[in-house]
Amino acid sequence: xxxxxxxxxxxxxxxxxxxxxxxxxxxxxxxxxxxxxxxxxxxxxxxxxxxxxxxxxxxxxxxxxxxxxxxxxxxxxxxxxxxxxxxxxxxxxxxxxxxxxxxxxxxxxxxxxxxxxxxxxxxxxxxxxxxxxxxxxxxxxxxxxxxxxxxxxxxxxxxxxxxxxxxxxxxxxxxxxxxxxxxxxxxxxxxxxxxxxxxxxxxxxxxxxxxxxxxxxxxxxxxxxxxxxxxxxxxxxxxxxxxxxxxxxxxxxxxxxxxxxxxxxxxxxxxxxxxxxxxxxxxxxxxxxxxxxxxxxxxxxxxxxxxxxxxxxxxxxxxxxxxxxxxxxxxxxxxxxxxxxxxxxxxxxxxxxxxxxxxxxxxxxxxxxxxxxxxxxxxxxxxxxxxxxxxxxxxxxxxxxxxxxxxxxxxxxxxxxxxxxxxxxxxxxxxxxxxxxxxxxxxxxxxxxxxxxxxxxxxxxxxxxxxxxxxxxxxxxxxxxxxxxxxxxxxxxxxxxxxx
Length: 500
Prior knowledge:
2 domains, 5-stranded mixed β-sheet, single chain, elongated, 7-stranded antiparallel β-sheet, alpha+beta
């Protein structure tokens, strides 16, 4: 679940709407406060103990809470509930049964989080609980909550509207159907993209007294990016065969080349997943952390009380933010890969081959003898810093999982060891020279190419060598150790020209 905060166009609201919103939020906060009081009074009847992993947790029984607070006209367990010890329907007549249950759910959450007496034993006698914030929460339903997007020219006030149930006058008019209170929203392109990513499950209306403005909090369940890019299934056996070789790097996170039956690489078949925006964000946080660490290192007697020191607290927060950002960066990179794979599966009978750089971290740390017979690091400090945060095993496993969950066969996603793939020429297969970082030059055939692209081509060719020059009847996945029969790849015989 994710919350998306959107501003309401308060300057375009009428006095009637503002008054209604104020009354609805005020009524709901009072109901929530009443529910919290009832739970605290009737703890023995309402609360039940649940043991999870050896820990005893207290949870509120919602059904028993309804028996104490809400009356029913229909039969429940062969009896009508006409009399209740705490009748909230008499106290708040301008509220529907569903809205009472919504307020009950909010009160239960508040109680379980911080309003529980047993959780807060250290509080003093004169301690007063904090007031419940003005909030209106609704679960999504056709009868309670609607989002509408109008086309251009239909409405000058706003294109995005939210319809909330207005049940203040329904009992006075003696009607079952409720009115709707339509609220205009200030939706940017970012908000529209985020809403399209998942499904809106609930809504929360809040008032900010300092800014004198209303806000709407949408609670969204995010669907995996792979589900959004699903297309119609095509019979892959009728499509032309192709192999996508992916080389995972340090400066450029990933590079890919598509090997088709034409025997040539067109510019449309070259992929670079650079992730520039995410890199900028990471770099900003890295600089902040470095500066703070240097300041704290220069100061004296800072390590005695780390909890009381503000510098260490801010450093801890920055590190946590950087950690969350790096996780998001990883998932964004996998989604970018998946988008291109989905598009290619519509046009080709595709097999994805990922080169797995096993033991990269240990190789970079290895020391080599210098010309003066002194130990020296095999790589620079710059490359070690770049490679250190990358978890290649996690990248490959997440990509594999996403492909399998969305209908691709396990035979179509393979991992092979990328030993000497970026240092060998993709034309003649001999050792190359690197005049500049990121560029490969072959002295035999005078062929120059980007090092990541040569690696991707050689990874694709390595898969084809296993098919056309087999050492066994099965093909082994390097990461999982699964055996796949070569009969599945009979349609890829048209790609043998890549090995000539």
